[in-house]
Amino acid sequence: MEEKIFEIILHCGDARGYAFDALKFAREGMFDEAADSIKKSEEELRLSHKTQTELIQSEINGEKVEMSLLMVHAQDQLMTAISEQNLIVQMIEMCKEIKELRK
Predict the structure, then answer these.
(1) Per residue in 53-63, is it b (16+ CB within 10 Å) or e — as a string?
(2) Fewer CB under 10 Å: which end of the chain, C or N?
(3) Which sequence spans correspond to the domains of the chain?
(4) Distances in Å between the alpha carbon of 46 and those of 8, 43, 82, 89, 93?
(5) Contact 15, 80 (CB under 8 A)
(6) Between the CA of residue 72 and those of 14, 20, 52, 99, what are the distances in Å?
(7) H or E stretch at 61
(8) Where does residue 33 rank: exposed (0-12), middle (13-18), buried (19+ CB within 10 A)?
(9) How is domain 1-102 classified at the CATH fold level?
(10) Per-residue pLDDT reduced to its tens digit, 78-102
(11) Which residue out of 17, 73, 75, 82 is catalytically annotated?
């Protein structure tokens, strides 16, 4: 089970990294690169969520899933990564609007 928990944490970290890369690209006016980074971030979040779902399914099927500090940390990382990505997508749209207004 620890391996699955570390998978969640790993993919969340990658997702956050790609999301912040996307914001950096957007601030530099590189919107195609920003879109590519957001797609990579979304894929990492999908992988993380898939692993989380597998753990939930295991528990539903009667397997004991221990709630450890590491598990709590993984869940926190996933929620944080999702929230940050959602906010960054909105910030990228704001960067586009600002660029248009400055023309």
Answers:
(1) eebeeeeeeee
(2) C
(3) 1-102
(4) 10, 5, 10, 16, 22
(5) no
(6) 18, 23, 12, 40
(7) none
(8) middle
(9) Methane Monooxygenase Hydroxylase; Chain G, domain 1 (1.20.58)
(10) 999 999 999 999 999 999 999 999 9
(11) 73
10-26 pLDDT per residue, tens = 999 999 999 999 999 99
pLDDT tens, residue by residue, 25-62 = 999 999 999 999 999 999 999 999 999 999 999 999 99
* Single-letter amino acid, residue 11: H
Say whether 76 counts as a known binding-site residue.
yes
| Those residues with Cβ within 8 angstroms of residue 50's Cβ, 6 or more apart along the chain or in another chain | none
Q: Which residue has the tokens 């248009």?
A: 100
* Spatial distance between the Cα atoms of 87 and 25, rounded to a whole number of angstroms: 15
CA gap 2, 55 in Å, rounded = 11
